[in-house]
């Protein structure tokens, strides 16, 4: 799938960081992944990010990652763009995953900052450049220093933007000033990786979002962007505020978003399954609380 119009965001606007469904026995649930992906696209997602943080990439094998991409591609066809996480702490392994992503049918790769070793900025630049040189797919950089321990500094991001295949950023830096500096000096497509920033980043020139909460309410998250694009910024703000209680419950309640999103999907009867260790499922009280928040958000009148 190619991006025929270079003026449009390279991977769509409304992207979901999709969970990876597992069976109750803990195996990869490809049928469930296909059903979930189809629902997400039908309800407003024009892009899906697979094998990312929410997709539990640290606990899936290389073969499972490729199988997931193939299954989702078969389910959604050309209705959505597929980006798959290929990042690791090892440059050689990242290159291998990036090459496998192209063979599996992905439209792009998401490359997270190498973690644990905390490479300095020149090493980061060399890492991303080596992977982008080796891979024929467009690249989305993943800046999430809260998990990796290392920030992709704005100056580094600006230099990396000169690479023809580095086209986008999933921004979890919590540095709106730094982000705007990069936006002002590059053509990088910035996607809000923190759900609460979806509208704020879009309003200053971002491309859209990569949302965990969209696993549960893809239509609500998409409606924020649609209202803004229609020129109704007041409605966009109201819709964004409607989503805030759910964003807080899913992303800022002391549990990883994967855990909370899967608890909500299970409550909706949608494919999710358990999380893989070392993560643990939400307990009954937490799951009930999440469902109560979701009911409060989706139970409001559609007209805002």
TrEMBL record:
* Keyword annotations of the record: Amino-acid biosynthesis, Cytoplasm, Diaminopimelate biosynthesis, Lyase, Lysine biosynthesis, Schiff base
Give the record's GO biological process terms: diaminopimelate biosynthetic process; lysine biosynthetic process via diaminopimelate
| Domain of life according to the entry | Bacteria
GO molecular-function term, one example from the UniProt record:
4-hydroxy-tetrahydrodipicolinate synthase activity
**To which protein family does this belong?**
Belongs to the DapA family.
Record NCBIfam families: dapA
**This protein's name:** 4-hydroxy-tetrahydrodipicolinate synthase
Q: Gene encoding it?
A: dapA
């Amino acid at each position: 799938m190619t991006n025929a119009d270079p003026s449009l965001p390279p991977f769509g606007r409304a992207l979901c960081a999709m969970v990876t469904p597992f069976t109750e026995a803990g195996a990869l649930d490809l049928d469930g992944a296909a059903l979930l992906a189809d629902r997400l696209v039908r309800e407003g997602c024009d892009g899906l990010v697979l094998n990312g943080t929410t997709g539990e990439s640290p606990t899936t094998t290389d073969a499972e990652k490729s199988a997931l991409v193939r299954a989702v591609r078969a389910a959604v066809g050309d209705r959505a763009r597929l980006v798959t996480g290929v990042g690791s702490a090892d440059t050689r392994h990242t290159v291998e995953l990036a090459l496998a992503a192209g063979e599996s049918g992905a439209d792009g790769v998401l490359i997270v900052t190498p973690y644990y070793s905390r490479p300095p900025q020149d090493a980061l630049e060399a890492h991303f450049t080596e992977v982008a040189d080796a891979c024929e797919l467009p690249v989305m950089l993943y800046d999430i220093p809260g998990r990796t321990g290392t920030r992709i500094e704005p100056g580094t991001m600006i230099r990396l933007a000169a690479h023809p295949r580095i086209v986008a950023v999933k921004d979890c830096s919590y540095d709106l000033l730094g982000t705007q500096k990069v936006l002002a000096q590059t053509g990088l497509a910035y996607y809000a990786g923190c759900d609460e920033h979806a509208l704020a980043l879009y309003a200053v020139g971002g491309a859209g979002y990569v949302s965990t909460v969209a696993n549960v309410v893809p239509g609500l998250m998409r409606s924020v962007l649609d209202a803004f694009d229609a020129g109704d910024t007041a409605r966009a703000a109201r819709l964004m505020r409607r989503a805030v209680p759910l964003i807080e419950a899913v992303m800022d309640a002391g549990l990883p978003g994967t855990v909370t999103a899967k608890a909500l999907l299970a409550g909706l009867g949608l494919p999710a399954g358990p999380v893989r260790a070392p993560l643990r499922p939400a307990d009954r009280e937490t799951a009930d609380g999440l469902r109560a928040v979701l009911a409060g958000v989706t139970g409001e009148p559609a007209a805002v």
